[in-house]
């Protein structure tokens, strides 16, 4: 059975690769995809097969998170934060709806049109099944050792003109601090961060700033391991937040919030896998999450995940 990927870098044309995924050794070039904690990084090596590939659908649906369950988990996190165990935890959930997988390739093209500034992809593998997404979050652009990453956090609808809250500024600020500290610990040079600003991603907007740095003497694998997972997808402190996530979440995150993109000797483009869904033959399961802090309102956090889910659902169900 042939594995394949279709992807579109921002501002570029669609690329199709057929081949076989295997474990990444940290040096091979190709299309990279990892799970959330990067325990199983896979690289797709082209083999020049026919482009008329059939998607590989998984059979077992992930655990579905109810509103009651999510709010209960949110309250548990608030207790952990109040006790001083951590400052922030990113809690994810799943949302499964019926879906006609016959429209999959058409929907991929529609995502490319609607999200010109996102990394849009369609991946089909034996290990992970078929996934589709349009992620706005750059993890790393590495061109000959001259690199760029972004600190992106906080979410609201693009037509929401209200001021960002202290909670949202806090979320984005800790991501920036985390990235700069990790780059300094690696010995990166010329670290420069621009001012925080609003960033539009389809129907949503976020707080974001870009961070440039020089990492000519550092391997790509070390850079990825240092930058991911950031507080934007795990929490702070990282180890304590991940422990809470593993205790509370009843679904495996799989490719959600993992690393995805192109590894190339000349120019690598890697992203954090957000705004994504696993596709089944007759259903689609969306993975969404939000940052929980001491100032979080559990009901508001649930609504935020609903809004995030709509960014894909409005396209996948609008035929």
Brief digest:
By secondary structure, the protein is α+β, with helices and mostly antiparallel strands.
Q: Mean of the pLDDT scores?
A: 92
Question: Within the CATH hierarchy, at the fold level, what is the topology?
Answer: Anthranilate synthase
Alpha carbon gyration radius: 19 Å
Strand content: 35-45%
Tell me which oligomeric state these chains represent.
Answer: single chain
Largest sheet: 17 strands, antiparallel
In CATH, the homologous superfamily goes by the name: Anthranilate synthase
Gap between N and C termini: 30 Å
Structural class by SSE content: alpha+beta
Order of helices and strands: EEEEHEHEEEEHEEEHEHEEEEH
Give the count of structural domains. 1
Which stretches of 5+ consecutive residues score pLDDT under 50?
A: none
Indicate the CATH architecture: 4-Layer Sandwich
Q: Can you identify the CATH class? A: Alpha Beta
Q: Name the overall outline.
A: globular
Strand runs, count: 17
What level of helicity do the residues show? 25-40%
Number of DSSP helical runs:
6
Task: Walk me through the structure.
By secondary structure, the protein is α+β, with helices and mostly antiparallel strands. The chain has a single domain, classed as Anthranilate synthase (4-Layer Sandwich). The chain has six helices and 17 strands. It has a 17-stranded antiparallel β-sheet that branches. Strand 11 and strand 12 form a beta hairpin.
Question: Which short descriptors sum up this protein?
Answer:
319 residues, 17-stranded antiparallel beta sheet
């Amino acid at each position: 059975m042939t594995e394949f990927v279709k992807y579109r870098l921002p501002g570029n044309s669609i690329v199709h690769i057929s081949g076989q995924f295997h474990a990444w050794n940290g040096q091979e070039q190709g299309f990279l995809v990892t799970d959330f904690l990067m325990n199983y990084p896979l690289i797709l090596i082209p083999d020049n097969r026919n482009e008329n590939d059939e998607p590989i659908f998984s059979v077992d649906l992930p655990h579905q998170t109810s509103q009651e369950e999510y709010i209960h988990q949110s309250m548990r996190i608030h207790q952990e934060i109040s006790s001083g165990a951590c400052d922030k935890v990113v809690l994810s959930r799943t949302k499964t709806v019926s879906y006609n997988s016959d429209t999959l390739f058409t929907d991929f093209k529609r995502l490319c049109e609607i999200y010109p500034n996102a990394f849009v992809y369609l991946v089909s593998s034996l290990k992970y099944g078929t996934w589709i997404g349009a992620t706005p979050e750059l993890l790393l652009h590495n061109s000959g050792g001259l690199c760029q990453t972004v600190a992106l956090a906080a979410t609201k609808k693009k037509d929401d003109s209200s001021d960002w809250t202290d909670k949202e500024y806090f979320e984005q600020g800790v991501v920036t601090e985390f990235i700069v500290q990790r780059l300094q610990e690696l010995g990166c040079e010329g670290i420069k961060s621009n001012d925080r600003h609003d960033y539009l991603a389809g129907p949503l907007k976020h707080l974001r700033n870009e961070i440039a740095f020089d990492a000519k003497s550092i391997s790509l694998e070390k850079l990825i391991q240092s930058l991911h997972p950031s507080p934007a997808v795990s929490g702070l402190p990282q180890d304590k937040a991940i422990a809470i996530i593993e205790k509370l979440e009843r679904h495996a995150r799989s490719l959600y919030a993992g690393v995805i993109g192109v590894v190339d000797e000349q120019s690598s483009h890697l992203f954090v896998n957000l705004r994504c869904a696993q596709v089944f033959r007759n259903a689609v399961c969306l993975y969404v999450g939000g940052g929980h802090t001491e100032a979080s309102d559990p009901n508001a956090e649930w609504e935020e995940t609903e809004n995030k889910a709509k960014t894909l659902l409005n396209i996948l169900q609008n035929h």
